[in-house]
Write the structure tokens for this entry.
Amino acid sequence: MEKIYIIGIGLIGGSFARDLRRLYPKAQIFGIDTTPEHIAEAIKIGLIDAEATITSIEAADLVVLSIPVDIAVKVLPEVLDHIGDQTLVMDMGSTKASICAGVATHEKRRNFLACHPIAGTEFSGPMAAIEGLYIGKTNIICEVEKTSFKLQEKALHLFTSIGMRIRYMDPVSHDKHIAYVSHLSHISAFMLGKTVINKEKNERDIFDMAGSGFASTVRLAKSNPTTWTSIFKQNKENILETLDEYITNLAHFKELMQEDDFNGVYQEMENTNHIKEILKGIE
Amino acid sequence: MEKIYIIGIGLIGGSFARDLRRLYPKAQIFGIDTTPEHIAEAIKIGLIDAEATITSIEAADLVVLSIPVDIAVKVLPEVLDHIGDQTLVMDMGSTKASICAGVATHEKRRNFLACHPIAGTEFSGPMAAIEGLYIGKTNIICEVEKTSFKLQEKALHLFTSIGMRIRYMDPVSHDKHIAYVSHLSHISAFMLGKTVINKEKNERDIFDMAGSGFASTVRLAKSNPTTWTSIFKQNKENILETLDEYITNLAHFKELMQEDDFNGVYQEMENTNHIKEILKGIE
């Protein structure tokens, strides 16, 4: 691994760069980003060695695409147009169906591996990059059979060296399930934040009453709106389905309370309590 | 402080007992609890010295009421019936209006201080008790003027020694605002958990896809259903109002997505992003 290009040098790409730097200390890492400040910051803190452009990636051993998913869908074919025969290209996006569909017939399809590492924080930009973010995390790989054997092997070696767990999945299933276990949480948190801020906007010291429970539930409302608008756009139909079910469940809970059916309220919570066992190992 | 009685020796009462033990190492701490296993556990791990009954509290210096709020409303008058003139009684409940109303005309009203320490975890029972849970946390005191000066002073000294910050508030405002910054978060988390579990019940390995974001947002769904049914019962009207607004906000977000108004979706998130500044100091 001599030449690595990271397209989009924020939290996700930047944290990955830190792992790559550790694994391949002699490799040169280049950054491509539409925000000049991100490039400057990333060089300053050592995430990348220098800026590059997409036209210079022919000699790349590895190209990592870590930009908002709707832009990634447009940029990926262009990236594949410019790479050499031995280049491995991987994306890190939170939706997988449209990015896979967009390059299905590209002549360099076998150079691409569709990935979704389940890792991140609510922060963004190169300064948010964290050493070790991916250690012990799950990496979901889609359509692995469409990537050449040699490059599959190269990628797998890389992920294993970082310490990631691998899961294989088809992109349509990925997008359906990830809407439940990731995307919906973000909407739930953003709207919780909105509800409380709207109510309390003239009484800021009310937030003195908030404890760690509120902080935890609303944490994802700090997330980057650009990243998430892009994800919601790409995964619209699945997310609308989860949102429908979530609203129905909330409305049902409200009805139980209105009817003073507190046995029902108790049961709703009791039935969900086994999330304890489910969450073990995630936190 | 020689004799302390904790009624309800779970997470809240048990953690408080640990602080009291540190501050008053010579005091005897008694536990009163309707669950015999809780008493046995609490003695075993040193939270309390012995079991007691409500009829034996006349000589108490301090009685702490840390049981579900709807039961506390019924038990508090009985507690006040049995105490001596110098006894300080405080409750720790998450709702304040009905407990204050319930003892408004009690002849021992001045022995009672209505408190709500904003502290806790999603766990429950004596084994969940934590040393230092209350350090640096906010304690909301309601109707302080209705407590005798001497006992106000005693309580204040205790809270300050523990390291709590004090806020004064009327009970009706307390219940209104706490519905937003605490109670709604619990419903939001429980229904998120329900939505995901219902969808994925036949595909348990889907939870391999869940990351720390989901875990954080759904964390409160591990909370004790008895505690929370009781709170929802006591604060029904305020919570229904918050729930209405939350559902309206979610439905609006859904509409924006349905109409492909992703500028609107972006704005919704952008407008809520300053929760970052609000949360500073809470987490």
Notes: Residues 174-279 of chain A form a domain with the 6-phosphogluconate dehydrogenase C-terminal fold fold (CATH 1.10.3660.10). The CA atoms of residues 276 and 282 of chain A lie 10 Å apart.
